[in-house]
Amino acid sequence: MSEFGLTGGIGSGKSAASERLGALGAGLVDADATVKQLQRAGMPVFLAIVAHFGDGVVGGDGELDRPSLADIVFNDPEELKKINELVHPAVRTDMARQRKALSKTHEIIVLDIPLLIDSENQIELAGIVVVDTPTDVAIERLTTLRGFSTKDANARISSQVSRETRLAKADFVVDNSASLAALDDEIARCWQWMGELHQAAGQP
C-alpha cells in the first residue's frame, strides 16, 4: 500500500482532482469531509468550537454556521490558530482510522489535505501532489462559482502558504489552470505516476 498526499490552495480545484483519482481506483481520505463530519451538532469538536467562539457561530438549524466562523478566523491570526488547535487533533485521529480501513482494500491511498504543506506531516508519504492554479484564476473561481467577495477570496488565499511554497514541496504538479477536459488528462498522467512509484517500491 502506498499513500500520497494531495493538496492545493483554495480555488485550485483540488476536490475535482481528488474525485477523479477516486474514480480511477484510489482510496480517498478527505480532510475537509472529515472536518465537516466532526463539526456536526453535538459532536465534541462542535461543542468545543461553540464554547470558545460563542453561539454566534451556530446557525438557525443548530449546526455550525461556517460562513460566520470563517469571517472570524480568516481575519484574525490568533483565532485561526485557535480553531486549528480545536479541530486538527481530532481530524488526525479520525483520518488514521480511515487510512487503516482503506489499507485493507486499496493499493493506493490519496490523502486530500488542504493544509498538508502548512503543517508538519507525520505520515510517511510516497509523494506529494500539488494541484496548481494561478492566483488570479483561483480568485475568479471563488467569486464566480462560490459567491466569495474579492476581499474574502484574497483573505482566504493570504491565510494559506504561498503558491511558490507549495510548488517547492511538490513531487508531482497537476496543472488545473484550464478546462475540466485538460484536468482529466493531468489526472490520468498523475495516476500513472502513482502506479509507477507503487510498483517501483515493490508494494503489495
Description:
Helices cover 54% and strands 12% of the residues. It has helices at residues 14-24, 31-38, 44-53, 66-73, 77-102, 135-145, 150-158, 163-169, 180-200, and strands spanning 2-7, 27-30, 108-112, 127-132, 172-175. The chain has a five-stranded parallel sheet, sandwiched between helices. Helix 1 (14-24) crosses helix 9 and helix 2 (31-38) crosses helix 5.
Mean pLDDT: 92
The DSSP helix count reads 9
Percentage of residues in strands: 5-15%
Distance between the termini: 6 Å
Instruction: Give the SSE string.
Output: EHEHHHHEEHHHEH
Query: Helices and strands: which structural class?
Result: alpha/beta
Poorly predicted regions are none
Would you count the extended β strands for me?
5
User: In which range does the helix fraction lie?
Assistant: 40-55%
Query: How does the major sheet shape up?
Result: 5 strands, parallel
Backbone CA Rg:
17 Å
Q: Reading side by side through the largest sheet, how are the strands ordered?
A: 2-3-1-4-5
Shape, per Cα inertia axes: globular
Task: Summarize the model shown.
By secondary structure, the protein is an alpha/beta fold. 54% of the residues lie in helices and 12% in strands.
Blueprint (SSEs and pairs):
Elements (H helix, E strand, L loop, with lengths): L1 E6 L6 H11 L2 E4 H8 L5 H10 L12 H8 L3 H26 L5 E5 L14 E6 L2 H11 L4 H9 L4 H7 L2 E4 L4 H21 L4
Parallel strand pairs: 1-3, 1-4, 2-3, 4-5
Helix pairs in contact: 1-9, 2-5, 6-7
Kindly list the characteristics that best describe this protein.
54% helix; alpha/beta; five-stranded parallel sheet; 204 residues; 5 strands; 9 helices
